[in-house]
Amino acid sequence: MTDTTHRLLPITASTHDVDIDLVYATDRNLTGKPIYRAAHCLLLDTAEAALRRATGIARDAGLKLRIFDAYRPPQAQQALWNFLPDPTYIADVKIGSNHSRGTAIDLTLLDANGAPLDMGTGFDDMTAASAHFHPGLPHTVQRHRLLLLGIMHAAGFGHIPSEWWHYELPGSRALPLIDDGAAGAPALM
């Protein structure tokens, strides 16, 4: 099913003033192999507008966003679920991920020199320490996570408790999944 009232928009470093490192197009992800055939960074138009707000807020703080993942075809979600069928970290394909609706984004913050802020764990570190408010992490890590949380919430995104890097538009589950290769979605698999 394709949502014809919204469309996926490309996100690029030059048009959005972000750093893009789509790890699922590489072998540097939890599966150890590329999941995407091509590295396309896309978001639904409403999420793209919120991302523009987030980049402006980050820029005003002397920071930049680095995007790890955005739109994810349902076929890629299936590959992740097959590798790690744990709904704490991977959305069950029966429900669908908000990434597959084009309304979720995985990202971190870079400092003024382009170095990533220490978030305590890496992206896709599917452990308890990846939770937003995991106790016992160093104060600097807690501050960095709260800074990212504040930027993203101020821009209109919500978060999930288990992953400091994952943000999504509230109410996204009401939208249909956007299938790989459907109108407006380039084949990523």
From TrEMBL:
- Binding residue positions for Zn(2+): 99, 106, 166
CC cofactor: Zn(2+)
Q: Where is this site: Transition state stabilizer?
A: 72
Q: Which HAMAP family match?
A: A_A_dipeptidase
- What are the leading ranks of the lineage? Bacteria, Pseudomonadati, Pseudomonadota, Betaproteobacteria, Burkholderiales
Cell wall biogenesis/degradation is among the record's keywords: yes
**What's an example of a GO molecular-function annotation for this chain?**
metallopeptidase activity
Briefly, what is this protein's role? Catalyzes hydrolysis of the D-alanyl-D-alanine dipeptide.
What Pfam families is this protein classified in?
Answer: Peptidase_M15
The cofactor note from the UniProt entry for this protein is: Binds 1 zinc ion per subunit.
Organism equals Paraburkholderia caballeronis
According to UniProt, the name of this protein is D-alanyl-D-alanine dipeptidase
EC number(s) recorded for this UniProt protein: 3.4.13.22
Which keywords does this Swiss-Prot/TrEMBL entry list?
Cell wall biogenesis/degradation, Dipeptidase, Hydrolase, Metal-binding, Metalloprotease, Protease, Zinc
EC class:
hydrolase
Which residues constitute the catalytic centre?
Answer: 163 (proton donor/acceptor)
